[in-house]
Amino acid sequence: MMDIYQILKKLPHRYPMLLVDRVVHIEPGKDIKALKNVSINEPYFNGHFPNRPVMPGVLMIEALAQTAGLLSFATLGVELADDQVFYFVGIDNARFKRPVQPGDQLVLDVTLERSKAGIFKFKGQASVDGELAVEAELMCTMRRVS
């Protein structure tokens, strides 16, 4: 399990781009379950859409990618140096099944499918109240930045 303070130590994202609030389960090399509490105070709701606010699909995918990043850190058992980042490098088979709106809790489930040559491939699903909202296959890799 990880609270927000542990997540902030692992992920470089900060408001408004930090999209994981808590990790409730993690098994390095296997899977992770995290939560994103969706609030009307999120800045994107002002324009998406004012009369019927819904969380943008790209941000649901980003929440899954951040969750996958946390699983990557746990799997490798490393702390990133200041010149290292995990980049989201690919997405396949993304499907959006239901809108996510203010007041929902997005449950993020990510499974590590494989790791080869420094590239991690994951299967991710996010649901609200047990109902699938989005699913996708994600890839990420660690890189040095200058």
UniProtKB/TrEMBL annotation:
It comes from the Bacteria. One of its GO terms (cellular component) is cytoplasm. GO terms for molecular function: (3R)-hydroxyacyl-[acyl-carrier-protein] dehydratase activity. Keywords: Cytoplasm, Lipid A biosynthesis, Lipid biosynthesis, Lipid metabolism, Lyase. It is found in: Cytoplasm. One of its GO terms (biological process) is fatty acid biosynthetic process. InterPro entries: FabA_FabZ (IPR013114), FabZ (IPR010084), HotDog_dom_sf (IPR029069). Its EC number is 4.2.1.59. The keyword Lyase applies. CDD domains: FabZ. Signal peptide: none annotated. It catalyses: a (3R)-hydroxyacyl-[ACP] = a (2E)-enoyl-[ACP] + H2O. The active site is at H48. Belongs to the thioester dehydratase family. FabZ subfamily. Involved in unsaturated fatty acids biosynthesis. Catalyzes the dehydration of short chain beta-hydroxyacyl-ACPs and long chain saturated and unsaturated beta-hydroxyacyl-ACPs. HAMAP family: FabZ (MF_00406). This is 3-hydroxyacyl-[acyl-carrier-protein] dehydratase FabZ. The gene is fabZ.
